[in-house]
């Protein structure tokens, strides 16, 4: 348990420090790998929206004007940048530090839960997805975008090598595939798209009506 706490603390410090270069790095990947992933994810959002791992708030200016947005992240320095971005965009957003493994919200309170390029760095992404589903209302929508295990064996080999560095350093994984777990949860998968050697995947799934 102590080792896990020490690891989480180290990763938290890593992402606090990463906040200084995060926008620049993600801008490169948005242009050359991720395409219009953020725009697609934000178009799926409606009503009361929770963004998990909101980071520096790169999605905040993209959301439609008719939503109410709450964002959580475990890095306060990331959140400070997100608050400035929201203010610059003239958006009222509730931003708070929280753990994706234990979301500080009641059951069934959000119409949409969004996570873009965040599950790769959440220690237990399965538990985080289960928490996202818990806070969704019946008929609510889960929207996930992430880089995943490539459909190319060569690319997966490169990803495996990268993880030898990125997982110990910041807990960042390259070979996860959130859709695999989503399909076991009872959600109705409505849209998926996988592209760029299978490195990027979009998922939109609906929570069934309550019994």
Describe the structure.
The protein starts with a helix and ends in a 5-residue tail after the last strand. The chain has helices spanning 2-18, 22-34, 37-43, 76-89, 125-135, 153-170, 178-182, and strands spanning 48-52, 68-73, 93-97, 110-116, 136-147, 188-195, 200-206. It contains seven helices and seven strands, in the order αααββαββαβααββ. The protein has a seven-stranded mixed β-sheet with strand order 3-2-1-4-5-7-6. The relative contact order is 0.15. The chain has 211 residues and is an alpha/beta fold. The model has no long low-confidence stretch (mean pLDDT 93).
What best-fitting shape do the alpha-carbon axes yield? globular
Terminal CA distance: 38 Å
Enumerate the spans where pLDDT stays under 50 for 5 or more consecutive residues: none
Could you estimate the helical fraction of the residues in percent? 40-55%
Q: pLDDT average, as an integer?
A: 93
Topology:
Elements: H1 2-18, H2 22-34, H3 37-43, E1 48-52, E2 68-73, H4 76-89, E3 93-97, E4 110-116, H5 125-135, E5 136-147, H6 153-170, H7 178-182, E6 188-195, E7 200-206
Parallel strand pairs: 1-2, 1-4, 2-3, 4-5
Antiparallel strand pairs: 5-7, 6-7
Summarize the structure.
By secondary structure, the protein is α/β, with parallel strands linked by helices.
